[in-house]
Amino acid sequence: MLFLGLLGSGHLQAQEAIYRCGQEYTNAPKDLSLCERLPQQSVTLISGLRPQGTTPNTTPKAAAPQPSPRTVLAQELARLEKQHQAWAQEVEMLMSQTGTAEYGAAPKNQDRVAALHLAMERAEREMETLQREAARGPQAALPGPMPVAKP
Q1: 69-95 and 107-136 helices, crossing angle to 10°
Q2: Which among 62, 79, 81 is positioned nearest to 71, based on CA atoms?
Q3: Model confidence pLDDT, tens digit, residues 78-134
């Protein structure tokens, strides 16, 4: 009866010995002489709490449908075009600051303008590549049969 009372209170007294062996904590040390036994501690069980992901009635979530390659290409192309346009507007704003139109960008802005021009050129190349890939069509994305060399 006393044992059931202890279980009901949430405390368990019977527990395996735990050892600290360097950085490792274990209840089955390989070499007992290199390990230090830790003092017993009472374990408290709290009913009703579970770690995340262990609820008994969980159903797997349906995977979201993956976008088609053409959709991904179109989204990436739209993102690049929008970024390119934003960079072009920033270059135009930096070049048109007061008193600098006849000489180009102000000295403090020249580095930024140069960096923006490089980024715009890279974006233009990427857009051209994406447009070529989109024009290839879906059949070009799948590898066809390899030609066999005849002796």
Answers
A1: 160
A2: 79
A3: 999 999 999 999 988 888 875 544 556 667 778 888 899 999 999 999 999 988 888
> Tokens for 143?
């590898």
pTM over cut 0.90: no
Distance CA 48, CA 56 (A): 12
Full 3-state SS string of 29-53 = CCCHHHCEECCCCCEECCCCCCCCC
* Burial category of 91 from C-beta neighbours within 10 Å (exposed 0-12, middle 13-18, buried 19 and up): buried
- 110: tokens are 């020249």
What count of residues does the chain have?
151
DSSP state of 151: -
